[in-house]
From TrEMBL:
Occurrences of domain Sulfatase N-terminal (ranges): 24-348
Lineage of origin: Eukaryota, Metazoa, Ecdysozoa, Arthropoda, Hexapoda
Pfam families: Sulfatase (PF00884)
Source organism of this protein record: Pyrocoelia pectoralis
Secretion signal span: 1-20
Cofactor needs: Ca(2+)
Entries under InterPro entries matching the protein: Alkaline_phosphatase_core_sf, ARSB, Sulfatase_CS, Sulfatase_N
Keywords recorded for this protein, A-Z: Calcium, Glycoprotein, Hydrolase, Metal-binding, Signal
Superkingdom to which the source organism belongs: Eukaryota
GO molecular function terms attached to this record: metal ion binding; sulfuric ester hydrolase activity
Similarity comment: family membership: Belongs to the sulfatase family.
Record's protein name: Sulfatase N-terminal domain-containing protein
Keyword flag Translocase: no
């Protein structure tokens, strides 16, 4: 009798999570090139992001979340759960017309389909399109609405590339496999949001939804109009003195509106109480150089493409009513490869079904119950072409190499503080925003407006304002630097002379990681065959076909 009762209890506890109708809806919002200091929950008043902040404060702010330093590597790590060195994607992002793509291994949407999910990709792919088989709807997404290359402009969806000394421009927006010309003239962030809203509205809430919302924002567009946003949104930022930064702020603000709209739609559809929302940036902001977007990684050092924290330590949080210990800031190590096993586990999947070679770790129970992270070390990247590498081990970070442009490794860019007049952080605006109103309905308790300041303070990094001068790391000699990231998040004090044993063991770990590396997939551009002119002025797969009428 006694046994029967226990079995019954176990049965009752277990059954709901294994029934497909009870699997949580997953909305993974990946943003592009967003700087550490471009969300207001990290301490800057300059660009208010009330919807993003409300979710972050009511979820878990992941303050030691690492991505890869560049777009393609980060996206490959996200969908495969594998360090990009193991699949040849640890180098430069894929350029247009490059006959290379993500290797044919099982990826995130395919795993979620196994669990009964409907899978959607909205926005950026950037994992190759040389053949139809490389494109999203052949890689596990039931639907795709977005672009293949690394960026487009925000209204015309053209992606322009200088290849073999000539400029090549092609249209890059598709619904499924068909060019979606009808959206020309509408703002990309709104267009992707509206599409997300329609998918949620059409979705049967009893079936699990997996949506990867992969924004173009806040990546810079084509030369000549790097930054674009609706004028009425730009006008909200009169307090920002730099006009480029003003436009950038508007782009971030549109992203914040998008988050509010998606949360509101999930609520209206009755899906929010069983949803997990993850928000991550693919890398830090490029504050100078190619695709400069006027973001701010302050107070972190380095920019997109570098292995310093400003390049790889990214804005991230997770929100869900399923998190038992939420409304907190986590300083546990978490890597972008961890989302595959973590979300698979959250969905009730058995992670032994995943490829045993993945590098990601299942962080779900650590997140839910505030346990320590299973991760004590991580490879940040190895790039043999640039001869750079970095890794974390507990509180330590080792950075090696000679970067392409040493000036990128400095503390550079806007501080997110310089304004014409102060605006102040409006906690009641956060408390009253659309995301907060929606999550209040499905949460046991919502973080009080007063507590926002406490969480915000915990999420704000504090560094002595040495700006790298204290004990600088000059990597140009091909040397190494060791930092204690917990005490020195701004990487100002190279400690390698004091901890030679740590340096030695981390170098050994690096050699071990390197033994798993494969050659880069990168190839020269195939622009003669892939020229958009041959494909009705679109970027189109070109190796199966010689013109735009060809289908997979
Ligand atoms: C591009 O132009 C440069 C300088 O004009 C020249 O040296 C180089 O060979 C050209 N490259 C190609 C691929 O045509
Ligand atoms: C703060 O936000 C609230 C709600 O949006 C608004 O009513 C109030 O005017 C704002 N306060 C300031 C000082 O801007
Ligand atoms: C870091 O410190 C070590 C030990 O003092 C020194 O040998 C090395 O040159 C420094 N690295 C850089 C790149 O400055």
């Amino acid at each position: 009798m006694y046994c029967k009762t226990i079995l019954c209890a176990i049965f009752v506890l277990c059954v709901p999570v294994t029934m497909s109708s009870d699997r949580p809806h997953i909305v993974l919002i990946m943003v592009d090139d967003l700087g550490w200091n471009d969300v207001s929950f990290h301490g800057s008043d300059q660009i208010p992001t009330p919807n993003i902040d409300a979710l972050a404060y009511n979820g878990i702010i992941l303050n030691q979340h690492y991505s890869q330093p560049l777009c393609t590597p980060s996206r490959s790590a996200l969908v495969t759960g594998t360090y990009p060195i193991r699949i040849g994607l640890n180098g430069k992002p894929l350029i247009a017309a490059q006959p290379a793509s993500l290797p044919a291994i099982k990826i995130m949407p395919e795993y979620f389909k196994d669990l009964g999910y409907t899978t959607h990709l909205i926005g950026k792919w950037h994992l190759g399109y040389e053949r139809w088989n490389s494109t999203p709807t052949y890689r596990g997404f039931d639907s795709f609405f977005g672009f293949y290359n690394g960026f487009t402009s925000y209204y015309d969806y053209l992606s322009t590339w200088k290849l073999n000394n000539k400029s090549h421009s092609g249209f890059d927006l598709r619904k499924g496999i068909d060019p979606a010309w009808e959206f020309v003239g509408q703002y990309a962030t709104d267009v992707f949001t509206d599409h997300g809203v329609k998918l949620i509205e059409k979705h049967d809430p009893n079936e699990p939804l997996f949506m990867l919302m992969s924004h173009l924002a806040v990546h810079a567009g084509n030369d000549g109009k790097l930054l674009e946003a609706p004028q009425e949104t730009i006008n909200k930022f009169k307090h920002i003195s730099d006009s480029n930064r003003r436009t950038y702020a508007a782009m971030v603000s549109k992203l914040d509106d998008s988050v509010g709209t998606i949360v509101e739609t999930l609520d209206k559809k009755g899906m929010l109480q069983n949803s997990i929302i993850v928000f991550v940036s693919d890398n830090g902001a490029p504050t100078i150089g190619i695709f400069q977007n006027w973001g701010s990684n302050y107070p972190l050092r380095g920019i997109k493409g570098t292995l310093f924290e400003g390049g790889v330590r990214t804005v991230a949080f997770v929100w869900s009513p399923l998190l038992v210990q939420s409304q907190r800031v986590s300083n546990e190590l978490i890597h972008i490869t961890d989302w595959l096993p973590t979300l698979y586990s959250a969905a009730g999947g058995d992670i032994s079904a995943l490829d045993p070679n993945i590098d990601g770790l299942d962080q779900w129970s650590s997140l839910v119950y505030d346990l320590s992270s299973p991760r004590t070390d991580m490879l940040i990247n190895i790039n043999d072409v640039e001869r750079t590498a970095a890794l974390r081990f507990h509180n330590w970070k080792l950075v090696l190499g000679t970067p392409i442009d040493p000036s990128f490794d400095d503390h550079i860019g806007d501080s997110g503080k310089e304004v014409l007049f102060a605006v102040g952080y409006n906690t009641s605006a956060v408390y009253q925003c659309r995301a907060a109103r929606s999550i209040e309905k499905v949460s046991f308790s919502i973080t009080a407006a007063e507590d926002y300041s406490i969480l915000r303070d915990q999420a704000t990094l504090k560094c002595a304002d040495h700006r790298g001068k204290a004990n600088p790391c000059d990597l140009s000699g091909g040397d190494v630097c060791l930092y204690d990231i917990l005490r020195d998040p701004c990487e100002e004090n190279n400690l390698s002379k004091y901890f030679p044993n740590v340096v030695r063991s981390m170098k050994r770990a690096l050699v071990e990681y390197k033994s798993g590396a494969v050659p880069l997939v990168n190839q020269n551009s195939d622009i003669e065959k892939a020229d958009p002119k041959l494909f009705q002025y679109t970027w189109n797969p070109w190796l199966d076909c010689a013109d735009a009428t060809c289908r997979a």
